[in-house]
Structure formats: structure tokens, C-alpha cells
Amino acid sequence: MNLNFLFINTVSLIQEKLKSLNIKLPPAQKVVGFYLPVLIVDNLIYTSGTLPFDEDGKLYFTQQIDFNNIEEGQLAAVCAVKNALAQLEDHLGSLDRIERIIRLAGYINSQTGFSQQSLIMNAASELLINIWGEKGQHVRTAIGVNELPLDSSIEIELIAKLKS
Hints:
This protein is an alpha+beta fold and about 160 residues long. The chain has a single domain, classed as CATH 3.30.1330.40. It has 3 helices and 5 strands. It has helices at about 15-20, 70-90, 115-130; strands at about 40, 45, 100-110, 140-145, 155-160. Strands 1-2-5-3-4 form a 5-stranded mixed sheet, covered by helices on one side. Helix 2 (about 70-90) crosses helix 3 (about 115-130). The model is unreliable at about 1-10 (pLDDT under 50).
């Protein structure tokens, strides 16, 4: 009797994709307030606002974004998305449970007169598309603000659809 059908492939496709892109997710950050880091409603999963903490738990780039530091802002956006993905993975057990990315919202701590928030968010959008391909395409908001918690340069939120 052949029992091979009982063995389930446990290789995470998204983890393999992250590895091929040389992307390592940080540990999921601990919540420091009275809110949930992740919430599932029906087949949608929402993240709370996520800041760009590095692997050592230090906040990456705490300056306001302006025309002189767009690249640092883009790196902060990518870092914040990695943190949001780490929260999702921690909650779900595997990012393979995500069918597609629905929405990405970015709040960019910008100096007065800076109007290129979309350039900052492009880096975060590109990361999601590189991971999920066409299913990583999403609607997006890029809003300039004059302050964020802990003097962060960016805060992002994600909404994704779960596989049935």
C-alpha cells in the first residue's frame, strides 16, 4: 500500500520566494499598546500601523523625509513592509495563507513642501509585487504627515485576502 499521499509538502512557497530575493523578515514586534497587531475579519487580514524597526529592534531612519533623503525613506518603507509581513507570518503561521495583497497605506513623516510621498511608497509596493507577482498588486494610499510615533519616518498598514 502506497502511503506517500499522506505526506504533505511543508515547504513554504513564499519563504522560498523571500529566500530567492535575499529577503529576511525580522522577528514580529511586540505590541506596546492596547490594540491588536493583526485582525482577521471574514477572509481579510488587517495589520495595525507598522513602523520600520530593524532586526535589532531599533527604529530605522527617524528623520522627516524631504527631497534630500528619498532613498532612505524608500529603505524605511521596505523595512516597515517587512515588519508588517513578519506580523502576518507570526499570526498566520505561514505567508502562504495569503491569496493576494489588497491595500497598502503609507503615512510618510514629511517636511513641509515635500510632495513625493508616492516615490517613497513605490519601494514598498515593488517589494510586495516581487513576492506575490500579479497578486501583489494592490490599491495604495501615500499620505504626508508632520509627525509619527517615536519620530518614525514612515508607518504602513496592509490589508490582504486569505486563501479559502
